Hints:
alpha+beta; 7 helices; 3 strands; globular
Amino acid sequence: MVPASAWENNLRNVLTKKMWNDLRKKIYEKYDRKCVICGKLSKKLHAHEVWEYDDENHIQILKDVIPLCPMCHLVKHIGFAGMNASKGGAPMVAVIAHFKRVNGVGQDVYLKHYEEELEKWEERSRYEWMMDVTKYFS
């Protein structure tokens, strides 16, 4: 989960709209228009930024941009998925079911994973984060 204090720290907000669109189209082509997680071939993909968090220096480091299907993207942003569901988006039961199906796990494993991620999110959200995209572009 992206720390609440870093919600606006993303590549999409740094690049121009044309640069972002060009980048995401290249990503989709590189992966043959398939979701990197579930393998679904999709006309509707999302470009997902993969961040590494330096918890000591509070720097989020862009590691990759990958294509995800809408459901896998909601799983990756499970906190957002909950807010989205409350506004009429994909129901959380469907998002959780997708996580369990793709990972071949039961409710107990999902809950453990979610609780661990929530704990990390709460701790990381206490800090302001600097964004580093240089490794991705070098």
